[in-house]
Specification:
The protein is mainly β.
Length: 579
C-alpha cells in the first residue's frame, strides 16, 4: 500500500511494505519500499557566485539509516551532482547557480534495505550578484584643450567570490553630456569627453549583465580650466599689468588697460592675455606705470599706453593703444621702464632715456624729453634698470651707478635728501652682475649669487633682517645662489640656481608668494614655484617664467593682472592661461 503524506509544507514520499522488527527484509524478499526522502536547501534563496548547500533526509520506516546507494541532485532535468548516502542525512554543495528560479529534487537509487525514491521539490531563487561602482577622474583640473578622462571601476560586492568580472556597460553623465562604455576584462570603463570650462559633477551607473546586477550610481567631479600660456621666454610686470614674450617673437599683455598699455588697440581691461597688435620679432619687454615698451630684433624699440609725459618716446605727449616706434633709437640691446620714464642700453655701452625727468631719472639736467636723450657721463654699461623715479646701471668693471630721485638713499652714494641727474657711484659694489631699481630702494646681484640692497627699508625690502633704511648697500641675509633679481615697490624677489625663488619686504597683497600675507625682512620661499627662468616685480604683484615656458603670477589681482582669467587675489602663484 502506498500513501502520500505532506510534511511541514514539503512533499514527502512514503512507501510501506512489511519489515521484520529490525527493519530488515526477510530473507529472499525484495527491498522494502518503506522510507521518507525530504530535501531542504540552505539558504532558501541565494545570489549568483554563492554556492548552495542541499540536504536530504532518508528515513526508513523501522528506523536505522541507509547502508549505501547514491543520491542524485537535479535542477529540473539537469544533473547537479551526486552524493553517497551513508547516514540518514546526506549533504551536497552545488556550484553557483545562474540567476533565476530553480526547481531542485533529489533522487535516491536505493540500497539493500531501502528502495529507490524521489524527494519533494524545492524552489530556489538565485539573484544576480550585487556590484559596487566607483568613479574618479584620472586628472583634475583638465586644460580646456584636452579631453577629460573618467575611470569607473565595477567590482562584485560581498559576498561574491569569483574570478569572473562584470561585463556590462557603464553610463557616464556630466550635465547634458553622456556616454555609454563597455566594461573591460578588468572591470574598468573609461570615458573621455570634451567638456567646457567649469566644474562638472559626473555620475557613473553600471547597467548589469546576465550574472551581475545593476549598481547604484557613483559620483565624482572634474574641473576644466584654460590651458597654460606657454612657449614664453621672458616676462615683465608693470604697475597694474603684465606682459610676456613668446619664443615666436610675439608679445601678450593682461591686466589694466586704461591707458592702452596692453597694446591691443583698445582700452578694455583683460584678465586673460591679449596679443599686442602689429608687433613681431620681440626679444624683450618692460612694463611701466600704465605703459609698456618692447625691444625689437635689430635694435629698435616700440612703446604703447600712457604717453602724456613723453614716455612713449615718439616725440609726442599722447597716449597710444598700439605700439609706436621710439624716435631715432637704434642699436638697443636692453630696455627698462619706470613709472613715467624709460631707458634703453645701446650696443656701444651708452644709455638713452626719455619721458618725465623731474627727478633727474633721465640722467640729464635738461629735464623731461619726448624722445631719447643720452645719460650724461655714462659708458661701458652692461645692465640697466629703471625704478619709480630713479635709474641704475652696472658698469663693465662690476661697479654700479644710479641717478634720479634719492629721497630715501636709493642711489646708494651714502647720502639722501636730494636728487641727482648725474650718475652717482654706488658705494661698496664692485662685482655686480645685475642691478634692479624699485620704488625707493635698489639692489645689486653680485657675482657668486649674493645680493646687496640700499634705500628705503620700512617694510624689509633690503632683506637684511631689519626695517632700518640704509644709504649704503647691505647684504641680503641668507641669500645664495641667486641668478636673477627684481625690485618692486617695497619688496624684492630673486630667482635661484636651484630653480626656486625668494622674496622679501612688503607682503600686504601677497606679492611675496609665501602664502602668508605677512611682511618679511629676510628672504622667504615662494610657495610651489620651481624651474624659475625669469622673475619680475612691481608694486603689488609678481610674475615668473618657468623653464617649461609657462608663467606664474601672484599677489593683487585687480584688473586681472595675474592673467588667470579672474580678478581674485592670491597669496601663492597661479598659472597664466591662454585666452
Amino acid at each position: 500500500m502506498l500513501r502520500r503524506i505532506s510534511i511541514v509544507g514539503v512533499l514527502v514520499v512514503v512507501a510501506v511494505m512489511g519489515l521484520d522488527r529490525g527493519g530488515v527484509a526477510p530473507a529472499g524478499a525484495a527491498p522494502p519500499n518503506a522510507k521518507a526522502i525530504v530535501l531542504s536547501a540552505s539558504p532558501g534563496s541565494t545570489v549568483w557566485t554563492q554556492a548552495l548547500r542541499l540536504s536530504v533526509s532518508i528515513t526508513p520506516r523501522g528506523g536505522g539509516a541507509p547502508r549505501g546507494g547514491t543520491v542524485r541532485f537535479l535542477d529540473g532535468d539537469t544533473p547537479l551532482g551526486t552524493a553517497t548516502a551513508t547516514t540518514r542525512i546526506t549533504t551536497f554543495t552545488t556550484a553557483a547557480l545562474t540567476p533565476g528560479p530553480h526547481t531542485i529534487t533529489a533522487a535516491y537509487d536505493g540500497d539493500v534495505v531501502i528502495a529507490p525514491g524521489t524527494s519533494n521539490a524545492v524552489t530556489i531563487t538565485v539573484a544576480k550578484a550585487p556590484t559596487t561602482t566607483t568613479v574618479a577622474p584620472t586628472a583634475t583640473p583638465v586644460p580646456v584643450d584636452q579631453t577629460a578622462e573618467l575611470r569607473a571601476v565595477v567590482r562584485p560586492a560581498a559576498p561574491a567570490n569569483t574570478a569572473l568580472r562584470p561585463t556590462g556597460t557603464v553610463r557616464f553623465t556630466a550635465g547634458t553630456r553622456s556616454g555609454v562604455v563597455k566594461v573591460n576584462a578588468n572591470g574598468v570603463a573609461t570615458w573621455r569627453p570634451a567638456l567646457p570650462l567649469g566644474d562638472h559633477p559626473v555620475t557613473a551607473t553600471y547597467s548589469g549583465d546576465a550574472e551581475y546586477a545593476a549598481g547604484d550610481p557613483a559620483s565624482t567631479a572634474v574641473t576644466v580650466v584654460r590651458a597654460p600660456l606657454d612657449d614664453l621666454h621672458t616676462i615683465a610686470v608693470g604697475d597694474e599689468h603684465s606682459c610676456a614674450v613668446s619664443l615666436d617673437g610675439t608679445a601678450r599683455c593682461w591686466g589694466n588697460n586704461a591707458g592702452g598699455q596692453l597694446g591691443d588697440g583698445t582700452t578694455t581691461d583683460s584678465s586673460l592675455p591679449v596679443t599686442v597688435a602689429g608687433l613681431s620679432d620681440v626679444t624683450a619687454i618692460a612694463g611701466g606705470g600704465r605703459f609698456t615698451c618692447a625691444l625689437i630684433d635689430g635694435g629698435t624699440v616700440s612703446c604703447w599706453g600712457y604717453g602724456t609725459s613723453g614716455q612713449l618716446g615718439n616725440g609726442a605727449a599722447t597716449d597710444s593703444s598700439i605700439p609706436v616706434p621710439v624716435s631715432g633709437l637704434t642699436g638697443a640691446v636692453a630696455i627698462t621702464t619706470g613709472l613715467i620714464h624709460a631707458c634703453a642700453l645701446i650696443d656701444d655701452g651708452t644709455v638713452r632715456c626719455w619721458g618725465n625727468g623731474v627727478f633727474g631719472q633721465l640722467g640729464t639736467a635738461s629735464g623731461g624729453s619726448t624722445t631719447p636723450v643720452s645719460v650724461t657721463g655714462l659708458a661701458d654699461v652692461t645692465a640697466l634698470s629703471a625704478g619709480t623715479f630713479h635709474t641704475c646701471a652696472v658698469i663693465e668693471d662690476g661697479t654700479a651707478r644710479c641717478w634720479g630721485n634719492n629721497s630715501s638713499g636709493e642711489l646708494g652714494g651714502g647720502f639722501s635728501s636730494f636728487s641727482s641727474a648725474t650718475p652717482v657711484p654706488v658705494d661698496g659694489v664692485d662685482a655686480a652682475a645685475a642691478i634692479t631699481a624699485g620704488g625707493s630702494h635698489s639692489c645689486a646681484l653680485l657675482e657668486g649669487g649674493t645680493a646687496r640692497c640700499w634705500g628705503l627699508n620700512s617694510t624689509g625690502a633690503l632683506g637684511d633682517g631689519t626695517t632700518t633704511g640704509s644709504l649704503l648697500p647691505v647684504t641680503v641675509a641668507g641669500l645664495t645662489g641667486a641668478t636673477a633679481i627684481s625690485a618692486g615697490n617695497g619688496y624684492t624677489c630673486a630667482g635661484l640656481d636651484d630653480g626656486t625663488a625668494r622674496c622679501w619686504g612688503t607682503n600686504w597683497g601677497g606679492n611675496l608668494g609665501d602664502g602668508t600675507g605677512t611682511n618679511s625682512s629676510v628672504p622667504v620661499v615662494v610657495s610651489g614655484l620651481s624651474e624659475v627662468a625669469a622673475i619680475s616685480a612691481w608694486s603689488s604683484h609678481t610674475c615668473a617664467v618657468r623653464a617649461d615656458g609657462t608663467a606664474r603670477c601672484w599677489g593683487v589681482n585687480q584688473f586681472g593682472r595675474l592673467g588667470d582669467g579672474t580678478t581674485d587675489p592670491t597669496l601663492v602663484p597661479v598659472t597664466v592661461v591662454e585666452p
